[in-house]
Amino acid sequence: ECWNPLKLKYQLRNVRERLAKSLVDKGICSTEKQNFFLFDMTTHPLSDSVHKVKLVKKVQDSVLSRWPNDPRRMDKRILALIYLAHASDVLENAFTSLSDDDYEVAMKHVRELLDLDP
């Protein structure tokens, strides 16, 4: 594959489809067709929420109990997951089960991560 900037939207679509297929193959998601008005859309709902709960717990722990003194030393996979969740506007959903104090600490740490220089 080449990364032609003019065809980026097609490449991102292919990446999304490959990720969805991989998650379906692993049994995390399933594939369903849903009718939205006049169009049939392929959706990928979770087939088992255990994986989601583990992931949410991992994100919560990384910004609370396992928070490093230097955020640059944070695990790169967790860091990427936090950035992706923030960009997708679902990061705050991961913190809804926390107490008010823990929520404030978690959001403070997330803001600290987002303010870092790349």
From TrEMBL:
PANTHER family: GOLGI PHOSPHOPROTEIN 3 HOMOLOG SAURON, TRANS-GOLGI PROTEIN GMX33. It comes from the Eukaryota. The keyword Membrane applies. It is a peripheral membrane protein. One of its GO terms (cellular component) is Golgi cisterna. The lineage of its organism: Eukaryota, Metazoa, Spiralia, Gnathifera, Rotifera. Belongs to the GOLPH3/VPS74 family. This is Uncharacterized protein. Signal peptide: none annotated. Keywords: Golgi apparatus, Lipid-binding, Membrane. It is found in: Golgi apparatus membrane. InterPro entries: GPP34-like, GPP34-like_sf. One of its GO terms (molecular function) is phosphatidylinositol-4-phosphate binding. GO terms for biological process: Golgi organization; Golgi to plasma membrane protein transport; Golgi vesicle budding; retrograde vesicle-mediated transport, Golgi to endoplasmic reticulum. Gene3D superfamilies: yeast vps74-n-term truncation variant domain like.
